[in-house]
């Protein structure tokens, strides 16, 4: 009967199928000798026959011993063929690689050993089958058997050497998809395998891995979260190498594509991934210049929350994010390339992101956003004008009511800039913009009286520093007069405005303006404020003292006898007496000993202050004012020495009679309101 395994003898077939390794090894050596002989005789047909038999009847057999014997024999065949292995490489390695996924651990081990021997002989001839080999290796490195893992490492090193030798012919385009498919695996061994291959290829001078970096960058950053420190360090080293190459030759890298990847990674919950992503963004900002501004909205989304990090563990992330933020600001401010840089900036998505971060964000993030908004309004105010309407509600409703004073102050800076940027060109002042803004602000105060009491002073004082204080006061007064404002809110608002007027150093010029109401402009402002100040009798008194209308002050004090004296009233009088001793009212104290206007000012003022003294209970304020009045010469209080033509009031065009009538009218309204409230509380 003809031997079905010819030219392999039946004895050799039996030995090759034996369960003992030694017998299989002897049979493999016999096959190696046979192949050597056939090769010498150039009888490659018989060699092909041997390979086919080994592949079909042994390696693909269901008998594990036959598989093991066939695997050893195929390796022996390759050794015998030497360089001629290339002619049969596909027939040899394909059956071997199929055994790498066998369920039998020993079969997998012999398959890996056999593959190593074949690759060692064939070397560059295996490169056309590199994808299959790479797939096989990627499985072997995660095999549960340590012997197989160790064998795979030897094969891996061999294959890397071969690729290095044949780097000029290595198909990188076929390799990258293999990496991309496996780079997201969670196994530490598989990750180590992937990193090692990328590192090896990146080190080859003839291979430019940076070109393909956008395709694998996401996966590399994910490897940074591996639990093994060794894998993390390997990945960090590889990323550092890539960044060094990019910095040396930015033109060779696709920075825009990678920036999109980095923006996503910079929002990772893993601190290490986040740090490296933002570090790369920082480098890209410096390398790309203005072009990076086309990614501004995404970069803001990534870095702005990081500015609020407080823990020491995240300090490096915060510092890096802050550096990115400052670099972007510089790009927008750079006068030399300003127009070119701004051409890359798409304001719509940028403002959408900034507006979102103004709500429900930590204080440092809000501060950074507000500074950006202010910066954009100063640099590109024409383009930013269309965004003002959407920003206003957020700035007013959210930022001004923020618990942080710093946020409130910065929000006011932005609001002031918006109002200023909306004014007409040239030197003309657009009062309409001020009015619209102040109406909204007053509505906000009206809706929340607590907000007015806690933040009103801070907000108004800052506005007066940044905007035209005269127009702010005049406009507030006009709004309070014209709009239907709750009387209580109106009086609270007046008290707030009055206290700011009397105590803020920034309003020095405004106070000086009110000192001399003989000036027509000053008189107009005084009349406007007076009608509004009428909601609060003590504030009206303070305004008149500031304007040096001492005769009228005396008349108002006399009227206090007919006004209901409440606790709030006495508290305000007490505060006013304290202010009289402040530097603001130095001129008032000097007026008590002044000979001007035939002593009229001094006498009216003395009489008014004595009237206030009589209203006060004997508190500290009483003794303070009493001590001051003890210094006033008695003869100045004599009524026969006062001439109505000598007073400040007689030398200006202010209609004090009409103002006094209006004051009494407003006070009657407040009295009626109190009476109605008492009646309502009784039922």
UniProtKB/TrEMBL annotation:
Subunit structure: Forms pentamers. Component of the PI(3,5)P2 regulatory complex/PAS complex, at least composed of PIKFYVE, FIG4 and VAC14. VAC14 nucleates the assembly of the complex and serves as a scaffold by pentamerizing into a star-shaped structure, which can bind a single copy each of PIKFYVE and FIG4 and coordinates their activities. Interacts with NOS1.
Protein name: Protein VAC14 homolog
Top-level taxon of the source organism: Eukaryota
Gene3D superfamilies per the UniProt record, alphabetical: Leucine-rich Repeat Variant (1.25.10.10)
Role according to the record: Scaffold protein component of the PI(3,5)P2 regulatory complex which regulates both the synthesis and turnover of phosphatidylinositol 3,5-bisphosphate (PtdIns(3,5)P2). Pentamerizes into a star-shaped structure and nucleates the assembly of the complex. The pentamer binds a single copy each of PIKFYVE and FIG4 and coordinates both PIKfyve kinase activity and FIG4 phosphatase activity, being required to maintain normal levels of phosphatidylinositol 3-phosphate (PtdIns(3)P) and phosphatidylinositol 5-phosphate (PtdIns(5)P).
Family label: Belongs to the VAC14 family.
Record-linked InterPro entries: ARM-like (IPR011989), ARM-type_fold (IPR016024), Vac14 (IPR026825), VAC14_Fig4p-bd (IPR021841)
A Gene Ontology BP annotation from the UniProt entry: phosphatidylinositol biosynthetic process
Compartments where found: Endomembrane system
Pfam family for this entry, one: Vac14_Fig4_bd
Gene Ontology CC terms, in alphabetical order: endosome membrane; PAS complex
PANTHER family reported for this sequence: PROTEIN VAC14 HOMOLOG (PTHR16023:SF0), TAX1 BINDING PROTEIN-RELATED (PTHR16023)
Keyword Membrane part of the UniProt annotation: yes
All copies of domain Vacuolar protein 14 C-terminal Fig4-binding, residue ranges: 450-632
Keyword Repeat attached: yes
Keyword tags: Membrane, Repeat
Major localization class: membrane
């Amino acid at each position: 009967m003809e031997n079905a395994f010819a030219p392999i003898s039946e004895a050799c077939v039996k030995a090759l199928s034996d369960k003992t390794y030694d017998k299989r090894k002897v049979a493999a050596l016999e096959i190696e000798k046979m192949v050597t002989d056939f090769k010498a005789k150039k009888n490659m047909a018989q060699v092909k026959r041997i390979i086919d038999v080994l592949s079909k009847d042994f390696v693909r057999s269901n008998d594990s011993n036959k598989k093991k014997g066939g695997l050893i024999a195929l390796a022996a065949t390759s050794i015998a063929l030497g360089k001629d292995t290339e002619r049969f490489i596909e027939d040899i390695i394909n059956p071997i690689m199929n055994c790498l996924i066998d369920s039998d651990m020993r079969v997998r081990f012999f398959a890996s050993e056999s593959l190593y021997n074949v690759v060692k002989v064939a070397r560059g001839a295996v490169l056309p089958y590199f994808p299959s080999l790479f797939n096989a290796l990627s499985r072997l490195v995660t095999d549960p058997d340590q012997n197989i893992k160790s064998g795979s490492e030897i094969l891996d090193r061999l294959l890397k050497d071969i690729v290095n030798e044949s780097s000029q012919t290595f198909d990188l385009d076929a390799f990258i998809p293999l990496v991309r498919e496996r780079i997201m695996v969670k196994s530490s061994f598989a990750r180590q395998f992937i990193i090692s291959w990328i590192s090896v290829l990146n080190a080859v001078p003839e291979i430019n891995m940076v070109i393909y970096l956008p395709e694998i960058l996401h996966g590399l950053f994910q490897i940074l979260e591996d639990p093994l420190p060794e894998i993390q360090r390997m990945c960090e080293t590889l990323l550092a190498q890539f960044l060094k190459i990019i910095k040396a030759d930015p033109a060779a890298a696709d920075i825009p594509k990678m920036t999109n990847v980095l923006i996503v990674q910079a929002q990772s919950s893993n601190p290490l991934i986040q740090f490296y992503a933002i570090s790369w963004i920082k480098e890209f900002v410096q390398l790309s210049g203005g072009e990076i501004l086309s990614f501004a909205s995404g970069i803001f989304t990534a870095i702005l929350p990081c500015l609020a990090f407080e823990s020491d563990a995240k300090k490096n992330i915060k510092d890096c994010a802050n550096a990115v933020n400052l670099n972007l600001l510089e790009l927008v401010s750079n006068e030399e390339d300003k127009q070119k840089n701004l051409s890359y900036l798409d304001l719509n998505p940028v403002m959408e992101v900034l507006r979102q971060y103004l709500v429900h964000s930590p204080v440092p993030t809000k501060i950074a956003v507000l500074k950006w908004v202010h910066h954009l309004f100063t640099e590109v105010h024409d383009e930013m004008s269309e965004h003002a309407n959407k920003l206003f509600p957020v700035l007013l409703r959210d930022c001004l009511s923020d618990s942080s004073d710093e946020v409130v102050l910065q929000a006011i800076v932005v609001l002031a800039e918006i109002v200023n940027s909306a004014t007409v060109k040239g030197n003309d002042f657009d009062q309409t913009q001020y009015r619209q803004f102040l109406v909204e602000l007053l509505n906000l105060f009206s809706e929340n009286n607590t907000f007015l009491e806690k933040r009103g002073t801070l907000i108004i004082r800052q506005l007066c520093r940044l905007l035209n204080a005269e127009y702010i006061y005049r406009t507030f007064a006009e709004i309070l007069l014209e709009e239907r404002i709750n009387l209580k809110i109106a009086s609270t608002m007046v008290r707030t405005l009055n206290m700011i007027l009397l105590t803020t150093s920034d309003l020095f010029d405004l106070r000086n303006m009110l000192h001399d109401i003989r000036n027509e402009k000053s008189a107009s402002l005084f009349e406007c404020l007076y009608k509004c100040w009428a909601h609060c009798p003590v504030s009206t008194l303070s305004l008149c003292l500031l304007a040096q209308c001492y005769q009228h002050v005396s008349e108002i004090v006399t009227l206090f006898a007919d006004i209901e004296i409440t606790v709030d009233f006495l508290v305000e009088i007490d505060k006013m007496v304290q202010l009289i001793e402040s530097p603001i009212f130095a001129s008032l104290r000097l007026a008590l000993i002044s000979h001007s206007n035939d002593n009229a000012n001094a006498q009216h003022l003395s009489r008014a202050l004595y009237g206030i003294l009589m209203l006060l209970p004997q508190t500290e304020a009483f003794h303070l004012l009493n001590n001051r009045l003890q210094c006033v010469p008695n003869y100045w209080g004599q009524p026969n020495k006062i001439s109505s033509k000598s007073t400040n009031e007689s030398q200006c065009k202010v209609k004090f009679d009409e103002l006094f009538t209006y004051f009494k009218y407003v006070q009657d309204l407040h009295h009626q309101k109190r009476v109605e409230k008492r009646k309502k509380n009784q039922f």
